[in-house]
Structures are given as C-alpha cells and as structure tokens.
Amino acid sequence: MSRPRLRSVTVIGCGLIGTSLALRLSRSGIAVSLADLDPAAVALGAGRGAGAPLAPDAPPADLVVVATPPSAVVDVLYEAQARGLGRAYTDVAAAKGLIWEEAVLRGCDLRGYVPGHPMAGRGLSGTAAAEPGLFAGRPWILCPGPSVHPEAAAAVEELVSLCGAVAHTMPPTAHDEAVATVSHTPMLVAVALAAQLADAAPDVLALAGGGLRDTTRIAASDPGLWSDILTHNAPAVAASVERVAADLVLMASALRDGGDTCSVSVGGLLLQGHRGRAALLDATGSRNPGDARCRTPV
C-alpha cells in the first residue's frame, strides 16, 4: 500500500522555520494554513505566498507543524490536538528530551505526534527571512515514540521529503547530546568570544579579518530564542561546554607556565583541532576547497 500523500498542512508559528517550510509546501501544491499569535506575521507569510490564515472552521489538516520556541511547544500541541486541528502532529524545536517528558505529563496524544528538528537556519530570523530552500539537503531529525501511529510517521516523513531534507531517526536523549555538540555549544562559544569584543576599541576591531567574523557569525542570532533552546537542553549543553572550557583552562595554564610544557600542550590541542576539523569536513563535505587546509599566517 502506498504512503498517503499530504494534501493539507497547518503551520503554527510563522517565524523563520515555520514560514520557510510553509513556502516550500505551498510551492509543492500543498494547501497550507498559517497561525501565529502575531497577526502581522500571518499576514506577511500569506503575502509571501506561504499559505492562507487558518480559518476557524477549517477541517482537520493531514499534518500540523508546531513551529514555536521550545517553551511553547507542549501547550500549543495540546491545544491543537484538543481542537482536532490535524490527523498528525510534529514540531521543529531544537531540543527534544524535556519537550517529550512534558508532552507525556500533559497528556498529549503521543500516537499522532512525531517530534522533529530540521538542522537548518540562518543568521536572520522572522517571517521576512524565510526561504523555501532552507532545508534542501539538510538533516531533519525525527524522534518518534514507541506508540506512534504509522500514518503519523509517514506524514512527517513526507513533510521532510517535500522540503528536500534528509530524515535521521534517533531517541530524544541522543538527539539532545548530538545537537549540544554540533550546534548548541558552538553557539555559546561564538557568543562568549563575541562578548569579548563588545567593549573593544573600534581601531582594534578594524584589524579583524574574515576568521573572526566567521567564528562569531552565529552570535548575532535571536537571544530570546536561543536562551529558550539552551535552557531546554541544559544538561547536555553544560557537559559539552565544560569539556571545551577544560581545554581552554588547560591552554591558559600552559601559556602562563611557558617552557617546553607550554609548547607540548598548545601544540597538542592545535593538532587535535586539525583532526576535528578534518573529521567535520569528511562527515559533512566541504563546500570550499580551501577549507581543507588553513594557510600559515604571514
């Protein structure tokens, strides 16, 4: 039996992710309904062709996507299920373990809910920043529970496919540990580095090259959203940040001590960094041939 085809999707939350997937689905011929606490965001999304405002008497959609910050997911999911807005439900939050626990305690229908997280984003946020190609080729992590209905799982998998993303399935805890390593800790490192520049003299900052701009790019992301994300994945992020901090403390101590120990310690971390960078490029592919090797500064 062939997998059911999505004909209608309701997107709750017209930010970057919600509007981007709504744009992509609309261009694929899916009837998309939009909802948001901010009527202006709905109007802007509709004006961009992402869909139409959700009608009060709309029939249940094939799929409802909860595209809100993590702290709102469970409340919105519970209410949407209570109203019968759809036959299947998913979300796009960047943390999964705590949301799953809250959904269980709240009494959400877990048979029709497939937690999801598209690993995509931009330095910009909001409805106006949305792009229909945002998810092309990107991983989209799914964390289905043991009781999920096959039709719900199939609907979410079709969503991922229509958006041009690649589905990866893992338990919520594994998801949270993985994104702490590849997303949440890099964000905090970038923020901590950028914070050191806040009071630097303009003539000093004018000396900076592309490396510093690249390293701190994600520090310009929405502080409110990222505070929500990080607190929802606090244990995994804390453990990952502590590992990075331990390396930095070790380097600071070695540099202060000087001598041969300094050379060995600093050199060892630099070599480990080369190994990590190479492993990242091997796993993700390099878009720039120059990424593979860094030139020696002159």
TrEMBL record:
<feature type="domain" description="Prephenate/arogenate dehydrogenase">
    <location>
        <begin position="7"/>
        <end position="286"/>
    </location>
</feature>
<dbReference type="Pfam" id="PF02153">
    <property type="entry name" value="PDH_N"/>
</dbReference>
<keyword id="KW-0560">Oxidoreductase</keyword>
<dbReference type="InterPro" id="IPR008927">
    <property type="entry name" value="6-PGluconate_DH-like_C_sf"/>
</dbReference>
<dbReference type="GO" id="GO:0008977">
    <property type="term" value="F:prephenate dehydrogenase (NAD+) activity"/>
</dbReference>
<dbReference type="GO" id="GO:0070403">
    <property type="term" value="F:NAD+ binding"/>
</dbReference>
<dbReference type="InterPro" id="IPR036291">
    <property type="entry name" value="NAD(P)-bd_dom_sf"/>
</dbReference>
<dbReference type="GO" id="GO:0004665">
    <property type="term" value="F:prephenate dehydrogenase (NADP+) activity"/>
</dbReference>
<dbReference type="InterPro" id="IPR046825">
    <property type="entry name" value="PDH_C"/>
</dbReference>
<dbReference type="InterPro" id="IPR003099">
    <property type="entry name" value="Prephen_DH"/>
</dbReference>
<protein>
    <submittedName>
        <fullName>Prephenate dehydrogenase/arogenate dehydrogenase family protein</fullName>
    </submittedName>
</protein>
<dbReference type="GO" id="GO:0006571">
    <property type="term" value="P:tyrosine biosynthetic process"/>
</dbReference>
<dbReference type="InterPro" id="IPR046826">
    <property type="entry name" value="PDH_N"/>
</dbReference>
<dbReference type="Pfam" id="PF20463">
    <property type="entry name" value="PDH_C"/>
</dbReference>
<dbReference type="InterPro" id="IPR050812">
    <property type="entry name" value="Preph/Arog_dehydrog"/>
</dbReference>
<comment type="similarity">
    <text>Belongs to the prephenate/arogenate dehydrogenase family.</text>
</comment>
